[in-house]
Amino acid sequence: MTPTFFSRNDCQLLFDKIVKMTNGGGDTSIDIVSRWSGTTQWARSRFNVAEDLQVVELSMSRSRNGAAGYARTMRLDDEGLRQVVADAEATLAMQREPPEHIRDQLIDEPSLTPDLWSAPTYALTPEARTKLAEQLMLPAAEAGLLTAGALRIAAEGHAVMSTDGMFRYYPVTNVECSMTVRDVKGTASGWAGVNHYALEKIDPAALAARALEKCLTMRNPSAVEPGRYTVILEPQAVADLLSPFIAEMLDRATPEVGRIGPFVGKTPGTTKITEQVIDRRLTLRADPMDPDGGFIPFERYTGTPYTPVIWIDRGILTELWYYREYALSALHRPSALLNSQSYRLQAAPDVPTVPVEKMIAKTDRGILITRLHGVQLVDFDSVLCSGYTRDGTWLIEHGKISKPVKNLRFAESPLFALNQLLDVGVSQRVFTPGYACVVPPLRVDDFNLAGLADAV
Amino acid sequence: MNTTDVTRRTFLQTGALAFATMIPIRKGWGAVSPQLHRDAIAPVEIDVANLKILLEAAVTAATDYGASYADAHVRYIRREDWEEFTWRDQHASYPLPSWLTKLGITVRALVDGMWGVAGAGGMLTLDAAAGLGRSAAGQAKTVTSGVAMQTLRRVTELAPAPVVTGEWTTPIGIDPFQVSPEEKADYGIALMDLLGRQRHVDRAELAVQFMKEQRIFASSTGSYVTQMLFTTKGTFSLSVERDWVTEHPAWRSADFFSAAGAGWEYVRNAPFQDEMARMIDEARSAQRAKPIDVGRYDVVFDARSMAEILTDSIGVATQLDRALGYEANGVGTSYLGDPLAMLGTFKMGSPLLNVKANRSMPAGAATVQWDDEGVVPQDVTLVKDGILTDFQTTREGAAWLSSSYEKIGHSVRSNGCAGRYGVPAPVQQVSPNVILEPGQHDLSFENLVQSTKKGLAIIGWAGGAIDQQGLNGWGAGQVIYEITNGKFTGTVDFDRTKFLYRSPEFWRNLVAIGGPRSVRTFGFERYRDSELDRAIHTVSSPPAKVTGVAVTNLFTM
């Protein structure tokens, strides 16, 4: 059978072949993401489908004197390659070369080398994947409940190459495991999930147990009055609230070109860098080498390295991300500061963390939230967004979980929540396929649970 | 204009040339660029004869390897993006087109009631195609021979589907891939220039995407069909200068231009010029708006906002895979949680509510001759006189409903909603075209307003969301008029006004519905696992009036 994804050598051969097909001089760069994935899915406590997919996506750029043309393809046979080269060159031919062009060669700066490859994960056979899925289904099935879920194992090769001399290649493995347990009548639902680079880094059985327990304790939920509550957001809920806006919020160009955004400074064209923007007990950072939240160390398409960055240090905004082009034109320096959208939110070093059990014990009246769904931006200036709780929501009274409650619609800004902080727990990996997010549970005051949304 | 905006990254991340170099054209359009590589715009089509051999090899390998049923499917997509033409800073600019090719083969095999799927991107050799067939069956066998617990194994039944053969092409006026980039650029630039000469227009944007797709399906029962599908989609919006008193900016996007199963004519025939003045007026009228008084209102929704609510609520809830929990760990379930009992009895809304689905309407974005299981989709009535009468189904879904279908004297047959979101990708349920049937009386939007004593009229759509069961939603219009005694008496702040709804109550409070002449159609995209892989459908709706709609503002929402 064909190889499951492209090796370094496969990428090199393909690149050489494409370069030979080009016409008219100039530079060529290509990006190849090749991916194999094996997935077992189940629903209604029965195996649903087992699948094996192999995909290669190639994108290329042809550039000359500052003009560039781009095209993408999944066809790697000769005819397909000729087509993609013709596509890129057609766009290039339509573009006017700028009168002045400083050749801005992206130097092949070294990139970091995080450990993102797991041999045992890659070696997992479809039979073993099925066996593992069976173990995840059994507890819920034996309890007479309906489980739906997916276990996905993947391996990817990421390559960026250019006639400028860049050559980057990084192989990674991936595991995504998530499951939902519902009662037969559809009146209770529980969920748990995580993604990581290696199977040995996650505990699937614990996820299955957690989803089951959540479903069991969600039976017969009562409606609570909407309003502002002290809430305990489990790590997944924090990620659901933060992830959709992490790129836009931390974009330096947005405030500096005078547009809207939460980090626009008081005078036009400035940012809130050096100002306190969230609670001082929290730090937001990203590092490809993060042992639990590592990610591919360079950007797709350009190969620009990701460097370790602290976005928010003890509540103070310290950096916003920008492209190399922006750095050259606005900041007069040659290097980009990129946002991979993977991140770690954590308690600052000397801040004691509080486990969720203790947060519950400290809460006189509040709501415990598993995850959020359908989070949509309502107002970008304040990052006010709206969405729904899902798969596990409980009322806390006098330091104890008193009963399950029907789901609620919230209208709140993640920034407001990060400012109304009461307690922060230990950060852990959550379910954000494609990204590595390490997030703590948070206890937050005055969270706006604006209305009842009784979907289960 | 800063040419350093050109980055491959922004281009590729947004799926098109969102931030690519804008070439300023100040007057006239003669400057549209010269030589083109002709082969880039006239894409090669796949040799269907060779593919037949390939697909048959895949299917045969799967059945030889133990599959009782197998099918194989090719998607070959050629896409051209123009993102975007603009009027900004007193000049028009046009984008460069970009092209994308997607190709993938997916095989699925049914072994002892278990599905196995194998797929690969790109062109395959005969051996590799057979390998996919074996792999699909092999995937299924990991369950059928590896899992001892019978209760964890499903028994898949497929509703009967006749063997089909043939070819079909979306009926279109003009193949967009036969129209030169120069002509497209000229058209876009001319439109931007025209807009720029209108009073009050500050900025305008037009994005267009053309897609041509070959879908080829072969099954172990002998079906073999090839289709050539065309989709054209785009967005068009304008913003007006800030109001000199309130300093409010305002914008309006075109409701008449979205997505359709059509060619270049969809762009050429779009009433940009006719609608321009109305769009400008509506945007301006929203600039001196008063804040909303939070409360319950009788609301006249225009066709666009009605279509949005329809597809988000009933459109999602009547997808059978969701209703039965097959998507419980994915996009969600449905408030129609007991489909077998609800079919034929459940009250979806007022007796005025009639909802149909098809994959046959002319220019429908989900219109096909055969779905991805080789089924000729039938036109179905999902809701009749307010009662739930059917679900959106696939072959497997129809079989799940067989007992309920028998009770109401319905034959067990797939409604033809099988499709795919990606390439290559497993068969999943996709949305058909969804139709809110107009009322019998020839009522217009204006008539609905005239018959309203006190209320609001919501025009256009400015975003919204719904929960995982299609049950509780919120939305916002682009322009909101206050109605007093059948007349518009000013606008309310569209930016801060949101309405909330709960599907069953909302549809129960449907009290008036526009007539056949007030119907409009809109294209919608929906994705499942990844935001990159989408399926498109059309929603057709008249305007309608709903009583007791909860209307709130940002601060109390």
**Low-confidence parts of chain A:** none
Q: Spell out the CATH superfamily of the largest domain in chain B.
A: PmbA/TldD superfamily
Q: From the alpha-carbon coordinates, what is the Rg of chain B to the nearest angstrom? A: 25 Å
Q: Summarize the biggest pleated sheet of chain B.
A: 10 strands, mixed
Mean pLDDT across all residues of chain B, rounded? 89
Strand order in the sheet with the most strands of chain A: 3-2-1-4-5-6
Helix content of chain A: 10-25%
Distance between the termini of chain A: 44 Å
Report the strand count of chain B: 27
- What is CATH's topology name of the largest domain in chain B? PmbA/TldD fold
Measured as a percent range, the helix fraction of chain B is 10-25%
Largest interface comes to:
A-B, 101 and 93 residues
- Characterize the overall form of chain B: globular
Structural class of chain A: alpha+beta
Give the helix/strand class of chain B: alpha+beta
Question: What best-fitting shape of chain A do the alpha-carbon axes yield?
Answer: globular
Total domain modules of chain B = 2
Short description:
Chain A is α+β, with helices and mostly antiparallel strands. Chain A is built from 11 helices and 19 strands. In chain A, α4 packs parallel to α5 (204-217).
Q: Can you describe this structure?
A:
The complex is a heterodimer of chains A (456) and B (557). In chain A, helix 4 packs parallel to helix 5. Helices cover 23% and strands 37% of the residues of chain A. With 456 residues, chain A is α+β, with helices and mostly antiparallel strands. In chain A, a hairpin with a 2-residue loop joins strand 9 and strand 10. Chain A contains 11 helices and 19 strands. Chain B has 2 domains: 283 residues, PmbA/TldD superfamily (PmbA/TldD fold, 2-Layer Sandwich); 258 residues, no CATH class. In chain B, a hairpin with a 5-residue loop joins strand 19 and strand 20. In chain B, helix 3 packs parallel to helix 4. At the A-B interface, strand 1, strand 2, strand 3, helix 2 and helix 4 of A face helix 1, helix 2, strand 4, strand 5 and helix 4 of B. Strand 2 of chain A pairs parallel with strand 5 of chain B.
